[in-house]
Amino acid sequence: MADTETTQPGDGTGDAIQNDPRVPPELDRNVFITTLDAVYNWGRKRSMWPMLFGLACCAIEMICTAAARFDLARFGWELMRPSPRQADLMIVSGTVTKKMVPQIVRLYNQMPEPRYVVSMGACATGGGPFKEGYNVVSGIDKFIPVDIYIPGCPPRPESLLHGFIKLQEMIDRQSVRTVPWYRPGGSDVIPVPLLGPDIIDVRRASEIAERNKVMAESPALAEGNAQGQA
Ligand code: SF4
């Protein structure tokens, strides 16, 4: 009785719904009011399917995260899929060599949207201890968009779980009205880089051509560049 005196129907509280005479008694404890974004984001963030692939030592920590001690299943993320067609999360775990970049970009393009990328460890984020290596790219974000960066060499499973929680928080802030995958045309497809003497991002083809032209007109500059690469 006290509730009906202090709570007005329609004021946005649960009590108001339960006391609203328009709601039949058999339903008065089964009616919830929420937003479309909350339901949409709740469903996605609790059922991520990561792609099952690893590149180097960080992948061992990722595998440990999925095992019993840390247990990804607590987050609803335990279904690691062997196919990009069934995955919505790419965990780039390990050193990214130039030879692997075309494959990573191709896998990313094959993932359905919505899709997310986690850069796990110093190597995937910036090259790590191999940054100056002739065969290593200094960050996978030069080729595909990264949502969450996880520091460490290697990050422990707790760090990966923290990154997952941060990704869930990021998903929570998205709105079905503004996400890119419902816009006309969808998200951009990333052209697969070319692997020749070096890795070439075809999106930067004009910039590379311009640089080559400048070097061709300045032999001293070209010689200095060649010595720098040697
Ligand atoms: S960040 Fe460290 S642990 Fe991870 S792949 Fe690179 S070298 Fe290995």
Name its key features.
single chain, 230 residues, mainly alpha, three-stranded parallel beta sheet, 9 helices, elongated, binds iron/sulfur cluster
Amino- and carboxy-terminal Cα gap: 85 Å
Task: Please identify the structural class as seen in this structure.
Answer: mainly alpha
Sketch the topology as an H/E string, one letter per element: HHHHEHEHEHEEHH
Q: Which term fits the overall shape?
A: elongated
Bound molecules: iron/sulfur cluster
The total count of helices amounts to 9
Counted beta strands: 5
**Main β sheet profile:** 3 strands, parallel
Which segments are poorly predicted (pLDDT under 50) over 5 or more consecutive residues?
A: 1-13
Mean pLDDT: 85
Strand content: 5-15%
> Strands of the biggest beta sheet: in what spatial order?
1-2-3
Rg over alpha carbons:
25 Å
- What percentage of residues falls in helices of 4 or more residues? 25-40%
Structure overview:
With 230 residues, the chain is mainly alpha-helical. The protein is built from 9 helices and 5 strands; from the N terminus they run H-H-H-H-E-H-E-H-E-H-E-E-H-H. Helix 6 links the parallel strand 2 and strand 3. The longest helix is centred in the last third of the chain and has 16 residues. The relative contact order is 0.11. The structure holds iron/sulfur cluster (SF4). The site of iron/sulfur cluster (SF4) has 12 residues, from helix 6.
Strands, helices and their partners?
Blueprint: H1 2-6, H2 14-18, H3 36-45, H4 58-66, E1 89-93, H5 101-110, E2 116-120, H6 121-126, E3 148-150, H7 157-172, E4 194-195, E5 199-200, H8 205-217, H9 219-229
Parallel strand pairs: 1-2, 2-3
Antiparallel strand pairs: 4-5
Helix pairs in contact: 3-7, 4-7, 8-9
Bound molecules: iron/sulfur cluster.
